[in-house]
């Protein structure tokens, strides 16, 4: 304390920082009388003492000196309270109390004026109480009210805390907020962010529990957390996977912020794994959410030893693909284009390489993915089925580090480069493939002379400017090139960048400003023997501006709100001759463009310790814009050349057609016990983009089409209900969730549709109804030598296209299975650790065969043979099942060595199951024959060397 220190031990009672230390030599009643006396000594003369001052970023010590000179009072405080504090304030002839309130408004300081001694006592966080709590002297005290009734005082008591210098603490006692004598509450809201002190990365799934109670919370994907605490002293127990467990002592004086800088604790991994995720499963309010950490794919045997979080996602309930090697994911009976896939906030249109066998994401720069397949958060929109929110790592801000792998198909490398110690870093990642030998080994003679290659690269910059501002920027590019036949070279690429500025506006409000751009395109170069060489191109580009905020209004309400605007530009296709001798004519379809916008607000409401509700509304808007030419067709008639009514020309940026409306997001969670909850949700959504493909499975050359005058926006509605239970001290996690989804204006195509380079593609398209429903079961064992999970999904996905005109009707207007309708889906993932260095893993998959349309007979007409086909998707290909095995060998665990390494030896399709990729039919000498092709019909072994330094 300064030279103004008051030595009388009685004054120490209330000026000791943030605590009251009651001296045993004082009589209890004397303390009470003294505090009351000091309060009464604050004279009316305060109102006549005035202060003037103009301060701009002035050190507080200088401000206090100036005030002392003006009024002749002296301040008493500890130097540590005011160091590094600067004041900006202006006032003219303000009375003493008001002036001091203005000076200390943005600090943690309160004040108490002793008018008789002309002393001003500063207090950190706390205040001087003029009443002591009920029962302080061992008996209940009462307050006399105006009507003469005696009732208990209900104001929360001051905080009493006994310092113990003998106890060694890893952290100082945290003092949060500043007491407000006019608004004393029994509980306050603590918010903050969990950060890895070594790397600067946010820590998701950090479990924060209040010791001695069932209050608990889990940090989100950005490390943010929120927890309501009783006023006064609390002890927090903090744990997360890979983070050293610790306890923090916190004194709550008001709502406030506390960032948790956590240290890594890899040696405690086995103990922490159970606690890290267990409570999130039960506590989280939204339904149908999954989270995958990139490390989880390390011990799962996948094709050719590649770590792949999207393949891991397919082992979770409700997520599948049309078949082995098929691109795209089907979530809860939705089409592949109904998934919003984001990489650091920017859309990635095709996140897969090599016909869907590999993901287009470097596993060593990818942090993880949050998957929302039920109650989608209010900030996301534009798709009906799901959101895959993929995040990359922040770089190491302490030292240069890296990670990589060398496998039979790809080589991966990621480097983390600190730019400014503890503040900024750069992540650089790259992958390359040498995959031609795989095509030559596939069970298809037509592929024996084929070749394929791919690569992707990513750069991420991260800068922590100060405690309130953080900037992240990501740039990504991937490209695939393959030749299935000797005369055609196909290529497709993704390009994106995003810039994000996170800003803490106050202890209650955080904001994020995001700018991003995405581009996807493909091309075909044809070089044949005749004069028909050509080059064909397609591309879609989008640019988005998004601003979102999160405000903790109080201990029961947290608002998420903001808006976004997006601009689309589509090149629907162009073809040009390749070479002077080509007979191909140049042709280009008119460019498409549109804008999409949204405003959203949601409130996470804590109704009680057991019941929480998340309510939100999002208004989505879409407008297709000119310059364009659009046809109109006769009302109630099929769209074809004979029903064209008019052709309308729209000028540049003229509005063609608008779609949109409100989207509701409602979810609730009720805790029966701390380890058992029930959740329910209801939501609707709009989708304004569609893929055009008449293939059974997704192709790299599928095109995206914007809604316009003739192609309507899709609509979706989903309800879900689930039960979540943990067993045996959270070692086991069980969930059962059911859902029902209804869809409108889903797309399908007329038989024999010609989609690409078609100026009037609406004549080939059908729009109808869809429905999907199912039950998802998941059982996880998360610790011990044996761990893993079992998932089972029963689901149906059905479409209906009905019309009074036969050309627009499928299967007589009845519901029929979609191409990806597979009722039964079972996945088993297991890992068994023999020692710290050796473990084995297994992956088993079983799925019902997908639907197919079979020929059921032949007939002869005009001396020609024709094949008669069944109703669409009436039959199914054989069921799919596959077993993969892997052996993981960790390097030695010596602390001082150049790099840590491990080797993965795996065998994909151990049983050599000849699972059909597709079934097709040919006519040979008048006889119809069925043939099938497979991707991997034999066991595929691989060895991958991984290293980390």
Describe the structure.
This protein has 949 residues and is mostly beta strands. The chain has 3 domains: 9-149, Phage tail protein beta-alpha-beta fold; 174-282, Immunoglobulin-like; 289-948, Maltoporin, Chain A. Helices cover 7% and strands 51% of the residues. A hairpin with a 2-residue loop joins strand 20 (339-343) and strand 21. The protein is globular.
Quick recap:
This protein is mainly beta and 949 residues long. The chain has 8 helices and 59 strands. InterPro entries: Beta-barrel_TonB (IPR000531), Beta-barrel_TonB_sf (IPR036942), CarboxyPept-like_regulatory (IPR008969), Plug_dom (IPR012910), Plug_dom_sf (IPR037066), TonB-dep_rcpt-like (IPR039426).
Find the CATH superfamily of the largest domain. Answer: TonB-dependent receptor, beta-barrel domain
Helix amount: under 10%
- CATH topology name of the largest domain, in short, is Maltoporin, Chain A
What is the helix tally? 8
- CATH architecture grouping of the largest domain: Beta Barrel
Family: Belongs to the TonB-dependent receptor family.
Subcellular location: Cell outer membrane
Membrane topology: Multi-pass membrane protein
Protein name: Outer membrane receptor proteins, mostly Fe transport
């Amino acid at each position: 304390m300064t030279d103004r220190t008051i030595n009388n031990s009685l004054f120490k009672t209330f000026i000791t920082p943030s605590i009251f230390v009651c001296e045993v030599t004082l009589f209890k009643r004397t303390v009470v009388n003294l505090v009351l006396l000091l309060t009464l000594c604050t004279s009316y003369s305060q109102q006549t003492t005035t202060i003037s001052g103009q301060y701009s970023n002035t050190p507080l010590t200088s401000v206090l000196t100036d005030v002392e000179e003006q009024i002749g009072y002296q301040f008493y405080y500890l130097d540590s309270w005011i160091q590094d504090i600067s004041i900006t304030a202006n006032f003219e002839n303000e009375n003493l109390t008001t002036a001091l309130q203005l000076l200390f408004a943005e600090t943690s300081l309160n004040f108490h004026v002793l008018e008789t001694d002309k002393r001003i006592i500063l207090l950190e966080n706390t205040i001087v109480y003029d009443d002591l709590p009920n029962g302080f002297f061992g008996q209940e005290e009462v307050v006399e009210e105006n009507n003469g009734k005696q009732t208990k005082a209900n104001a929360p008591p001051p905080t009493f805390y006994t310092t113990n210098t003998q106890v060694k603490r890893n952290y100082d006692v945290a003092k949060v907020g500043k007491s407000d004598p006019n608004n004393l509450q029994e509980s306050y809201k603590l918010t903050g962010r969990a950060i890895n002190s070594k790397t600067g990365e946010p820590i998701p799934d950090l479990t924060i529990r209040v010791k001695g109670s069932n209050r608990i919370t889990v940090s989100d994907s950005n490390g943010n957390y929120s927890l309501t605490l009783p006023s006064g002293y609390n002890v927090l127990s903090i744990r997360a996977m890979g983070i050293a467990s610790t306890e923090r002592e916190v004194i709550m004086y008001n709502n406030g912020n506390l960032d948790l800088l956590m240290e890594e604790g890899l040696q405690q991994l086995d103990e922490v794994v159970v606690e890290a995720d267990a409570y999130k499963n039960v506590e989280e309010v939204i339904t149908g959410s999954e989270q995958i950490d990139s490390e989880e794919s390390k011990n799962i045997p996948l094709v050719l030893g590649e770590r792949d979080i999207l393949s891991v996602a397919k082992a979770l309930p409700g997520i599948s693909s049309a078949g082995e090697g098929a691109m795209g994911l089907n979530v809860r009976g939705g089409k592949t284009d109904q998934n919003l896939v984001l990489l650091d906030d920017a859309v990635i249109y095709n996140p897969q390489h090599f016909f869907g066998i590999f993901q287009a994401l470097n596993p060593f720069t990818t942090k993880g993915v949050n998957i929302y397949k039920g109650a989608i958060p209010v900030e996301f929109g534009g798709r009906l089925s799901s959101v895959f929110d993929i995040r990359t790592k922040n770089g190491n801000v302490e030292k240069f580090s890296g990670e990589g792998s060398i496998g039979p198909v790809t080589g991966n490398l990621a480097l983390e480069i600190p730019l400014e110690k503890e503040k900024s870093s750069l992540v650089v990642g790259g992958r390359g493939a040498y995959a031609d030998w795989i095509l030559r080994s596939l069970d298809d003679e037509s592929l024996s002379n084929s070749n394929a290659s791919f690569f992707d690269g990513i750069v991420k910059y991260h800068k922590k400017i100060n405690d309130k501002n953080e900037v992240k920027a990501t740039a990504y590019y991937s490209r695939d090139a393959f030749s299935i036949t000797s005369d055609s070279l196909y290529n497709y690429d993704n390009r994106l960048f995003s810039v994000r500025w996170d800003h803490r506006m106050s202890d209650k409000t955080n904001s994020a400003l995001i700018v991003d751009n995405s581009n996807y395109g493909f091309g075909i170069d044809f070089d044949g023997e005749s004069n028909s060489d050509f080059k064909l191109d397609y591309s879609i580009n989008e640019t988005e501006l998004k601003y979102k905020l999160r405000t903790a209004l109080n201990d029961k309400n947290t608002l998420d709100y903001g808006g976004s605007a997006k601009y689309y530009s589509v090149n629907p296709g162009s073809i040009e001759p390749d070479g002077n001798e080509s007979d191909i004519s140049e042709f280009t379809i008119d460019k498409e463009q549109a804008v999409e916008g949204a405003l959203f607000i949601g409130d996470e409401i804590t109704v009680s310790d057991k019941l929480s509700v998340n309510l939100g509304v999002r208004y989505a808007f879409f407008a297709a814009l000119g310059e364009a030419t659009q046809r109109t067709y006769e009302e109630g008639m099929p769209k074809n050349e004979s029903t064209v009514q008019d052709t309308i020309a729209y000028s540049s940026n003229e509005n063609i057609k608008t779609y949109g409306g409100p989207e509701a997001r409602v979810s609730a969670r009720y805790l029966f016990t701390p380890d058992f909850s029930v959740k329910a949700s209801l939501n609707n959504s709009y989708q304004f983009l569609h893929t055009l493909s008449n293939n059974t499975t997704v192709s790299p050359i599928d095109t995206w089409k914007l809604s316009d005058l003739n192609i309507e926006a899709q609509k979706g509605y989903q309800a879900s209900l689930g039960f979540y239970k943990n067993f045996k001290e959270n070692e086991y996690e069980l969930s059962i969730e059911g859902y029902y989804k209804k869809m409108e204006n889903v797309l399908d195509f007329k038989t024999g549709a010609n989609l690409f380079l078609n100026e009037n593609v609406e004549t080939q398209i059908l729009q109808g109804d869809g429905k999907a429903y199912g039950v998802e079961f998941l059982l996880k064992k998360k610790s011990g030598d044996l761990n893993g999970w079992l998932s089972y999904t029963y689901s149906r996905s059905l479409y209906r296209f009905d019309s009074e005109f036969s050309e627009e009707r499928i299967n007589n207007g009845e519901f029929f299975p979609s191409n990806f309708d597979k009722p039964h889906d079972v996945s088993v993932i297991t890992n068994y650790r023999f020692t710290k260095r050796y473990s084995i893993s297994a992956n088993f998959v079983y799925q019902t065969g997908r639907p197919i349309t079979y020929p059921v007979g032949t007939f002869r007409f005009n001396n020609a043979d024709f094949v008669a086909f069944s109703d669409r998707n009436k039959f199914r290909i054989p069921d799919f099942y596959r077993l993969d095995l892997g052996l993981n060998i960790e390097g030695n665990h010596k602390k001082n060595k150049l790099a840590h390494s491990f080797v993965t030896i795996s065998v994909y399709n151990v049983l050599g199951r000849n699972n059909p990729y597709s079934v097709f039919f040919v006519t040979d000498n008048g006889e119809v024959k069925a043939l099938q092709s497979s991707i991997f019909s034999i066991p595929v072994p691989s060895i991958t060397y991984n290293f980390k330094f």
